[in-house]
Design goal:
alpha/beta, seven-stranded parallel beta sheet, three-stranded mixed beta sheet, lyase, EC 4.2.1.46, aldehyde dehydrogenase (NAD+) activity
Length: 349
């Protein structure tokens, strides 16, 4: 099988490529990248690179050809900016880039596994984590920042294409940590907790999962959507357009930060931030954004997101895709070890 993976230099995409290379050496792997990555990103992997910039019409022909040359697409590429700025850029990549991939898949009759995010879904609660069917008005939804708005628009693109005949499954990962986080992406939280003591942790929570487990679940979705349609069981719940949450254990950020601090030797936070501290932080972040041309990670949208409970139930993926999660302590150990070895001066080693 010939597999095209977008976002192969990112945390999830790199783990997908590495699992495919290890478990299915007879498969042909291609990564769609904006430019040739540093050699270590694909070290040890037999991966070809196709050059194309999502959302850039000038490279659409190259993207179309990459899709034509594969049997299935795993679309993992995304621009992640938790803030109010960069909306146009986020839409160009996460919505318009997805549309490019989808149109090429329709043109060449190729199935796709699209990577969304739990943040496009309803929020959960400790007593009732959200599922794929939880209505947005039950517990509210994540702050409609550039990332959330553009990723939600990208999912809408895929759903619309399914109604036109596209064969697609949609994966919504939780908060992923793990090895092969080259930038780092979510591993930046480990860096921040390790290098700077903050007595107050964010007051919300996340559904902590291992990127390796999400990669395995994504590959299971790929197997399901590439099964020839005439041979699929008629009573199977797996239909084109079906969505799957691939999350993990639901933790507060206070719990997570203390576990990270324990592993990095950093001072632990004392307590979660209260409403007063959060309000002051949001006001300060909003003022900084207004006077700065470049919005940093400390902004009012990110602060608001950190007060929400992104807690989810992965039962559907467990039942239908065989999704399993490992002990989160193993995930944290491995993620911290990766970050400390990759970024030793920043992460406390």
């Amino acid at each position: 099988m010939r597999i095209l993976v977008t976002g192969g230099t990112g945390l999830l995409g790199n783990n997908i490529l590495r699992q495919l290379a290890a478990d299915r050496p007879d498969h042909s792997l291609t990564a769609l990248v904006r430019s040739q990555p540093k050699p270590q990103v694909f070290a040890g992997l037999d991966v070809s690179c196709a050059i194309g910039d999502l959302g850039d019409e000038e490279t659409f022909s190259a993207i179309r050809q990459a899709v034509a040359d594969c049997d299935v697409v795993i679309h993992s590429a995304a621009l992640i900016h938790i803030g109010w700025q960069r909306m146009e850029e986020s839409m160009r990549v996460n919505r318009d880039g997805t549309a490019m991939i989808v149109e090429a898949c329709i043109e060449h009759d190729k199935p796709i596994v699209h990577i969304g995010t739990v943040d496009t879904l309803a929020l959960g609660a400790r007593e009732k984590p959200a599922s794929e069917t939880t209505r947005l008005n039950e517990n509210g939804s994540a702050t409609l920042c550039s990332y959330v708005a553009s990723k939600r628009a990208g999912v809408d693109v895929v759903k619309s294409a399914v109604r036109r005949g596209l064969q697609a499954l949609i994966i919504h990962p939780g908060f992923m940590l793990g090895p092969w986080d080259w930038k780092p992406s979510s591993g930046q939280m480990i860096v921040e907790v390790a290098k700077t003591w903050r007595p107050l942790a964010p007051s919300g929570g996340c559904s902590l999962c291992d990127a390796r487990d999400v990669a395995a679940g994504t590959i299971a979705a790929m197997d399901a959507i590439t099964q020839p349609r005439p041979t699929r069981p008629t009573d199977s719940p797996i239909k084109s357009g079906r969505e799957y949450i691939l999350a993990g254990e639901n933790w507060t950020y206070f719990e997570l930060w203390r576990e990270i601090a324990k592993r990095t030797g950093a001072r632990k936070p004392i307590m979660p931030a209260g409403p007063g501290q959060i309000l002051i932080g949001e006001i300060a972040a909003s003022m900084l954004s207004k006077i700065s041309a470049n919005e940093g990670v400390f902004n009012s949208a990110a602060l608001e997101m950190s007060t929400q409970f992104h807690w989810y139930d992965s039962q559907r993926a467990h039942d239908e895709l065989g999704y399993r999660i490992r002990d989160p302590s193993i995930s944290l150990d491995d993620a911290v070890d990766w970050i400390q070895n990759r970024f030793p001066t920043q992460a406390g080693r």
